Amino acid sequence: MRAQASVLHLDLDAFFAAVEQRDKPSLRGKPVVVGGVGGRGVVSTASYEARRYGVRSAMSTREARARCPHAAFLTGRFHAYRETSRAVMAVLRAVSPLVEPLSLDEAFVDLAPAELGDHDETTLRAMGERLREGVKEATGGLTASVGIGTSKFIAKVASDLDKPDGLVVVMPGTETELLRPMHVTVIPGVGPATAERLRRAGIHTVADLETVSLDELVRLVGRAHGTGLHALARAEDDRAVEPERETKSVSVEGTYDTDLTDRSLMSGLLTRQAGQVAERLRKHGLSGRTITIKVRLHDFTTLSRSTTLPSPTDHAPTIARLARSLLEELDTSGGVRLLGVGVSGLADWIQEELFTDEEPEQEQDVAPVEPPTQRSTWAPGMDVEHTEMGRGWVWGSGRGVVTVRFETAQTGPGPVRSYPADSPDLAPWRPPETDGAPV
DNA sequence: TCTGGGGTCCTAGGACCC
DNA sequence: TCTGGGGTCCTAGGACCC
């Protein structure tokens, strides 16, 4: 918590719906719902006109239709949202370079570098109004709610207090009296599960929470969460505004209107998703070592399976192949409603650099370290044949060693073995390009 | 026919190493 | 030979956020 109110939080009001109303004047003043329109879609954003009918974010579109049948139901136009978001972030960066976007419609701004002179309430309000005006101009009339306070937590709570189109400044020293009467769910990280645990312990408000000892909180909700809650209940929050946050994972998933039962269809869908993930990785110059699939069964139980490569990849056939073999482990006979593929353990360099950089620590289980050669011969994902092991594909390669994952059509994925890259027992057996055709 | 999609962070257990 | 403890990496699942 800072001595001065110098953290600002800005939240665009009903952002997706507002962009739709801006771009299509016939929708202005009318209920608009943006979200999935399929049988299993949910509401992403409801305009304030639609909220009057009880339509809320995360509600199923089916229920939203029941509550407000005359609303316009639209799927998102993410290009337009991204473009508009960029314009908003540019307005914020003109005030201070320290802007941390949380999503397309939300950001923190650290006002410390802004030349504000005094941080008295009048100056802060003027700054907030100036920003809101700037956003309106840059976006063709979108409104935003702004909160200013001594920490991220307080700024965020403040921006929520006078929505929509509001501005609230919480001056230093007034934080705890503001928070105490509020329900524990104002604290970021307290969702339904945590709120229920706290409720059972008789803790409802922030004031209640403040009386609970650190040990007791840790016992209730775990180490990390407990210490966080203990501090936030006292408005203690020193989290910095971080303009550059690194991407940790990239994923694509889809929920299907009817449950999937056909394994070959699932394989095809995973293959297509793997291609989309690889494309996004490449676009951002990323690659990753851990491939994860996500499977949601008909009864909503959600499973994940993952595997970690010896070196990072952005190669679609490799990701697809691993995803498909991970699916083999799962019993999907009851039907699958969601399938997804993700890559994590990201590096901002690609595998080729393994060959040019100095030797990494990591060792292979086959010893001979030859001079780095064969770069193009053993590309990840490439199909290979071993005289004894049979068919497999390149899982990773580097430093004169190629790691192969063997599999057969009959038995599925098999063992992983490493060989010297010049092993006469190992040969490519067909070009990999036939792989990856979606169903 | 309740329950999206893209993320982040945490926990807990096992393997493995020192 | 037995007893341990700590650290790191990996996997699976869950809570949470917008």
UniProtKB/TrEMBL annotation:
It is an enzyme of class 2 (transferase). Mg(2+) binds at residues 11, 105. Its cofactor is Mg(2+). The keyword Metal-binding applies. Binds 2 magnesium ions per subunit. Its EC number is 2.7.7.7. The active site is at residue 106. InterPro entries: DNA/RNA_pol_sf, DNA_pol_Y-fam_lit_finger_sf, DNA_pol_Y-fam_little_finger, DNA_polymerase-Y, DNApol_IV, IMS_HHH_1, Rev_trsase/Diguanyl_cyclase, UmuC. It comes from the Bacteria. GO terms for molecular function: DNA-directed DNA polymerase activity. Residues 7-191 form the UmuC domain. Poorly processive, error-prone DNA polymerase involved in untargeted mutagenesis. Copies undamaged DNA at stalled replication forks, which arise in vivo from mismatched or misaligned primer ends. These misaligned primers can be extended by PolIV. Exhibits no 3'-5' exonuclease (proofreading) activity. May be involved in translesional synthesis, in conjunction with the beta clamp from PolIII. Monomer. NCBIfam families: PRK02406.1 (NF002677), PRK03348.1 (NF002882). This is DNA polymerase IV. It comes from Nocardioides aestuarii. The lineage of its organism: Bacteria, Bacillati, Actinomycetota, Actinomycetes, Propionibacteriales.
